[in-house]
Amino acid sequence: xxxxxxxxxxxxxxxxxxxxxxxxxxxxxxxxxxxxxxxxxxxxxxxxxxxxxxxxxxxxxxxxxxxxxxxxxxxxxxxxxxxxxxxxxxxxxxxxxxxxxxxxxxxxxxxxxxxxxxxxxxxxxxxxxxxxxxxxxxxxxxxxxxxxxxxxxxxxxxxxxxxxxxxxxxxxxxxxxxxxxxxxxxxxxxxxxxxxxxxxxxxxxxxxxxxxxxxxxxxxxxxxxxxxxxxxxxxxxxxxxxxxxxxxxxxxxxxxxxxxxxxxxxxxxxxxxxxxxxxxxxxxxxxxxxxxxxxxxxxxxxxxxxxxxxxxxxxxxxxxxxxxxxxxxxxxxxxxxxxxxxxxxxxxxxxxxxxxx
Length: 357
Ligand SMILES: Cc1cc2nc3c(=O)[nH]c(=O)nc-3n(C[C@H](O)[C@H](O)[C@H](O)COP(=O)(O)OP(=O)(O)OC[C@H]3O[C@@H](n4cnc5c(N)ncnc54)[C@H](O)[C@@H]3O)c2cc1C
Ligand code: FES
Description:
The protein is 20% helix and 31% strand. The chain is of the alpha/beta class. The chain has three domains: 2-88, Beta-grasp domain (Ubiquitin-like (UB roll), Roll); 103-198, Elongation Factor Tu (Ef-tu), domain 3 (Beta Barrel); 205-345, Rossmann fold (3-Layer(aba) Sandwich). The strands form four sheets. The protein has a six-stranded antiparallel beta sheet with strand order 11-10-13-8-9-12. A six-stranded parallel beta sheet has the order 17-16-15-14-18-19, with helices on both faces. A hairpin with a 4-residue loop joins strand 8 (103-114) and strand 9 (119-126). The protein is globular and about 65 Å long. The two termini are 34 Å apart.
């Protein structure tokens, strides 16, 4: 059984299967509704129900507050239809966005590589080719959990096309059900299911502006794919990657970026460590120390006007970078973010510095 969903202001009418979420139906039919976590935590996919009945599903009470439910709002990633429904959604027009409908994939684990003590690279051979924009992510079904988790694709689209494999870089989260499974139980040869591509974190190439990528923790995945894609395409705009980790042991793909910076005069690589022991304690690190936003501020002399910035990583890092960029005269239209939101961040995900919801 299916219901009809009308999405305003587009006036698009789509079929939604019983039990299928509004977001899933829209993305599979090539209609983009803004979203991030995909499972009721972040509130990015909030839409207004203008007619008909929905079931709010597993929406987190912080992501969809009681008064918002009373006002007729719902989370598209959790809501299912009880009836034919009309919603109003914020369907922004992005000239650089490609319309790629979400599809399901089966995959086989071909390699698991320890990138750092806390991050593993999972190499997954897909049963059919995936089309995506560098920076986008997939939802990976965690076996036995009955839930998916979001992971950004860490290799460039050209590499995925050539090898038929996506690479996901997964940081283990203390107490996290999905990442613990992937780190401790997953093995080469296992079969997995995933869907994608999701998200609107991609390069606004039509802007033709210098780019600064700011990444922390496992948030390197998307910027790595984006930077490799840009350099692979022969992009000549200045590209700076400011990449922060706690220690040298956690700084994965460091040698790759050093080599890329030597090879491409328009690419600058600024690694920064926040908790590396000092020389007296045996560290040979001579690069920047501190947080990503501090290193970016020092590198750019505090001025970011005339750039496009792409921030990716844990919410506190992204927030700190937004503050630094705004102090440096780069504002909301010039800043694009992907926050690696987890259940622990459910009630504090949207930047209070951004006007747009
Ligand atoms: C768009 C996007 C892209 C991402 N890309 C990547 C990536 O490339 N690499 C990567 O490593 N990560 C990425 N992430 C993050 C990744 O999805 C999370 O690390 C993952 O969801 C954590 O899953 P988990 O099942 O291990 O933890 P969960 O079980 O979801 O728990 C996470 C944390 O929250 C705590 N917790 C659980 N429930 C609650 C609750 N109700 N209240 C408070 N705390 C709670 C847990 O103890 C744990 O510390 C991405 C996230 C998003 C949204
Ligand atoms: S995408 Fe729906 S709440 Fe995060």
